[in-house]
């Protein structure tokens, strides 16, 4: 260990202005903390070389080096530097600063609180956890305390016992198989089979730390050039930025296709053809098409016919289908059709298409975002491809067991006649009914605003209204180097405390402006938010029209 030397200028107190750079280069600290022999040589051009084991690595003498850092932003992964994730982007960072100001200096702003409508984080906005899920989690975590007592209903205890039997050492603290706890994978397979009337194998179910992890695993699997062309994935515009961010991180091609706003954000097949051809022209090889249904940020629910057409398109273009169905329980208008079911019903040859569908414990009626539970079902995979995917996943060991248990409770809720059934149904219905009411309220209210057009929120947890921004405001935004919708949303935040995300963070047709708001705040807060919004919008229009 002592031979591995690391310059540690801060540790040596050598980062003061009195230390010359040659002094800095001449001292070093071993990993066990002792000052060792001088191994770093100062270079006349201010590029030093430090001996670490048998490697020599150049160190650039910059202001950052004065702090003893060898990792500087300019030598970090460039893909990570370019990726963006608007849902937690600059507007949200500003909201955090405003919250701090309100706390430190109450009364210093014309509003009392920030209303966070930027992220689909259900519990953060006040939604209560489902009792059954939390009781199963508590019992699984503390079996000595709860298994033998009658504090919790008998079906809760039976469920926890069943899961624990499938866990190493009967503890949630043990790693599971990389693809998840066996009994939970069985339950997921039963859920899909029942939902869709198709046979689903537990071997095709992979439990993951949220749907995000699953999406990332699959995109990574596809990250290989084909015929010398860069791999790409077709993604909707607007889209949930997990996709654009991950593709940027993996340096894969983004193949954007526009959703049809005038047709409730449906997918338009000629537009898919256009996007596909354009990618090929740009030497990008589309390998998969991603569909988010119900839609984020659009709040749309796709029709069965549209899903059929998409499956045919994917089949005809040799694309894997990635169906992000995390909002399958959040449907307020119409009906949810899973890609799995429609594919099976289409029959040959479409039922041979590779399909991955994603589900999460974070959304629906449960909203357990923090537990990080999710799964993917992989269908029609080549066995070797599947083995490669599982190998890659095994390097991450396994997803969190508590997240897996939350997922179990979602796919296998209490059955009629079981002790927890009534309360479970009451809580589930309450959450979903409130969301339904709020979905309608938000769209209806926005449609009364001058220059707003908001499609019905048929599903998911978001509205994505289109707004007409006056030319004067567009010019003003330009002069500040901002997108017009960013400018609008930032003004809204600064003047009212209402935090939503500009449409540019999700992508939109050039020349159109949108923003995304969640429908999650409690009804009274949502009403307050819409009133503040209205006043702000009227003022904004007066100022810039
Ligand atoms: C469409 C979509 N997919 C995936 C996710 C990620 O969900 P999870 O919390 O399971 O990672 C989200 C989260 O908002 C989402 O909206």
Automatic annotation (TrEMBL):
Keywords: Aminotransferase, Pyridoxal phosphate, Transferase
Cofactor(s) named in the record: pyridoxal 5'-phosphate
EC identifiers of the protein: 2.6.1.2
Catalytic function, reaction form: L-alanine + 2-oxoglutarate = pyruvate + L-glutamate
Source superkingdom: Eukaryota
Keyword Chloroplast in annotation: no
Associated pathway: Amino-acid degradation; L-alanine degradation via transaminase pathway; pyruvate from L-alanine: step 1/1
Molecular-function GO term, any one: pyridoxal phosphate binding
Transferase as UniProt keyword: yes
Pfam families the UniProt entry points to: Aminotran_1_2 (PF00155)
Residues in Aminotransferase class I/classII large domain copies: 166-530
Subunit structure as annotated in this protein's UniProt entry: Homodimer.
Family per similarity comment: Belongs to the class-I pyridoxal-phosphate-dependent aminotransferase family. Alanine aminotransferase subfamily.
Protein name: alanine transaminase
Organism: Galendromus occidentalis (western predatory mite)
